[in-house]
Amino acid sequence: MELILPDFGLFFWMILSFSIVLFILFKYAWNPILRALKYREKSIERSLLSAKKAKEEMAKIEFGNEKITELAKIEKENILKEAKRIKEEIIAQAKEIAQKEANKMITETKEKIEQEKIIAMDDIKNQIAVLSVDIAEKILKQNLADNTKQKELINNLVKDIELN
Question: Are 144 and 150 spatial neighbours (Cβ–Cβ below 8 Å)?
Answer without folding.
Answer: yes
